[in-house]
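WARN retry 2 of 3 for item q-0093 after timeout on previous attempt; input resubmitted unchanged.
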Amino acid sequence: MPITASERSARLSQLSREAQEYRMLIRLAQESKRKLKTAKTRLDNAIEDWGRAYKAYENNTNLKEVVVADVFEGVIAEKLREELPETVQYMVTSDQKAASVSANTALQINNLDSYILVLQTKLNAVLAQMASLMSG
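OK item q-0093 returned
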Protein backbone atom coordinates (compact mmCIF):
# COMPACT_ATOMS: atom_id res chain seq x y z
CA MET A 1 0.00 0.00 0.00
CA PRO A 2 1.52 3.35 -1.05
CA ILE A 3 2.05 6.01 1.58
CA THR A 4 0.20 9.28 1.53
CA ALA A 5 1.83 12.63 0.78
CA SER A 6 1.53 13.67 4.44
CA GLU A 7 3.12 10.39 5.60
CA ARG A 8 5.91 10.88 3.06
CA SER A 9 6.41 14.46 4.25
CA ALA A 10 6.47 13.39 7.92
CA ARG A 11 8.96 10.60 7.17
CA LEU A 12 11.18 12.94 5.15
CA SER A 13 11.10 15.42 8.01
CA GLN A 14 12.10 12.71 10.48
CA LEU A 15 14.90 11.48 8.21
CA SER A 16 16.11 15.05 7.71
CA ARG A 17 16.41 15.46 11.50
CA GLU A 18 18.29 12.16 11.74
CA ALA A 19 20.66 13.27 8.96
CA GLN A 20 21.30 16.57 10.78
CA GLU A 21 22.01 14.68 13.99
CA TYR A 22 24.53 12.40 12.24
CA ARG A 23 26.20 15.39 10.57
CA MET A 24 26.52 17.12 13.94
CA LEU A 25 27.97 14.00 15.58
CA ILE A 26 30.43 13.59 12.70
CA ARG A 27 31.58 17.22 13.07
CA LEU A 28 32.00 16.80 16.84
CA ALA A 29 33.97 13.58 16.41
CA GLN A 30 36.18 15.18 13.74
CA GLU A 31 36.83 18.19 15.98
CA SER A 32 37.67 15.91 18.92
CA LYS A 33 40.00 13.93 16.68
CA ARG A 34 41.72 17.12 15.51
CA LYS A 35 42.23 18.28 19.10
CA LEU A 36 43.58 14.89 20.15
CA LYS A 37 46.00 14.86 17.21
CA THR A 38 47.25 18.32 18.17
CA ALA A 39 47.69 17.29 21.80
CA LYS A 40 49.46 14.08 20.76
CA THR A 41 51.84 16.00 18.52
CA ARG A 42 52.72 18.35 21.39
CA LEU A 43 53.19 15.43 23.76
CA ASP A 44 55.34 13.52 21.27
CA ASN A 45 57.50 16.62 20.74
CA ALA A 46 57.95 16.97 24.52
CA ILE A 47 58.90 13.28 24.76
CA GLU A 48 61.49 13.76 22.02
CA ASP A 49 62.87 16.86 23.76
CA TRP A 50 63.14 14.91 27.00
CA GLY A 51 64.88 12.06 25.18
CA ARG A 52 67.50 14.43 23.80
CA ALA A 53 68.03 16.03 27.21
CA TYR A 54 68.31 12.63 28.88
CA LYS A 55 70.87 11.45 26.30
CA ALA A 56 72.89 14.59 26.98
CA TYR A 57 72.75 13.76 30.69
CA GLU A 58 73.75 10.15 30.05
CA ASN A 59 76.69 11.22 27.88
CA ASN A 60 78.03 13.85 30.31
CA THR A 61 79.92 12.32 33.21
CA ASN A 62 80.16 15.71 34.94
CA LEU A 63 76.39 15.84 35.28
CA LYS A 64 76.40 12.46 37.00
CA GLU A 65 79.17 13.46 39.37
CA VAL A 66 77.52 16.73 40.46
CA VAL A 67 80.55 17.55 42.63
CA VAL A 68 83.21 18.99 40.32
CA ALA A 69 86.34 20.34 42.00
CA ASP A 70 86.84 24.08 41.57
CA VAL A 71 83.54 24.32 39.66
CA PHE A 72 80.62 23.05 41.70
CA GLU A 73 81.31 21.70 45.17
CA GLY A 74 80.29 22.02 48.77
CA VAL A 75 77.18 21.19 50.79
CA ILE A 76 74.71 21.95 48.00
CA ALA A 77 76.64 19.80 45.54
CA GLU A 78 76.64 16.92 48.02
CA LYS A 79 72.89 17.32 48.58
CA LEU A 80 72.29 17.35 44.80
CA ARG A 81 74.44 14.24 44.39
CA GLU A 82 72.17 12.47 46.88
CA GLU A 83 68.95 13.70 45.25
CA LEU A 84 69.92 13.51 41.58
CA PRO A 85 69.41 9.74 41.07
CA GLU A 86 65.91 9.92 42.55
CA THR A 87 65.07 12.97 40.43
CA VAL A 88 66.37 11.31 37.26
CA GLN A 89 64.39 8.14 38.07
CA TYR A 90 61.25 10.25 38.56
CA MET A 91 61.88 11.86 35.18
CA VAL A 92 62.36 8.47 33.51
CA THR A 93 59.13 7.20 35.06
CA SER A 94 57.34 10.36 33.94
CA ASP A 95 58.68 9.87 30.42
CA GLN A 96 57.35 6.31 30.39
CA LYS A 97 53.95 7.53 31.56
CA ALA A 98 53.95 10.22 28.86
CA ALA A 99 54.72 7.56 26.25
CA SER A 100 51.79 5.52 27.57
CA VAL A 101 49.49 8.56 27.32
CA SER A 102 50.70 9.11 23.75
CA ALA A 103 49.94 5.49 22.83
CA ASN A 104 46.50 5.68 24.43
CA THR A 105 45.82 8.95 22.62
CA ALA A 106 46.67 7.25 19.32
CA LEU A 107 44.21 4.49 20.24
CA GLN A 108 41.50 7.07 20.94
CA ILE A 109 42.19 8.72 17.58
CA ASN A 110 41.75 5.34 15.88
CA ASN A 111 38.53 4.77 17.84
CA LEU A 112 37.23 8.15 16.68
CA ASP A 113 38.07 7.21 13.08
CA SER A 114 35.99 4.05 13.48
CA TYR A 115 33.15 5.99 15.09
CA ILE A 116 33.18 8.55 12.27
CA LEU A 117 32.94 5.71 9.72
CA VAL A 118 29.95 4.21 11.56
CA LEU A 119 28.24 7.61 11.68
CA GLN A 120 28.96 8.22 7.99
CA THR A 121 27.49 4.82 7.12
CA LYS A 122 24.34 5.62 9.10
CA LEU A 123 24.11 9.06 7.48
CA ASN A 124 24.44 7.50 4.03
CA ALA A 125 21.65 5.04 4.86
CA VAL A 126 19.37 7.90 5.97
CA LEU A 127 20.20 9.89 2.83
CA ALA A 128 19.43 6.83 0.68
CA GLN A 129 16.04 6.46 2.40
CA MET A 130 15.33 10.14 1.76
CA ALA A 131 16.25 9.78 -1.92
CA SER A 132 14.03 6.73 -2.20
CA LEU A 133 11.08 8.56 -0.64
CA MET A 134 11.56 11.59 -2.87
CA SER A 135 11.70 9.52 -6.04
CA GLY A 136 8.79 7.25 -5.14
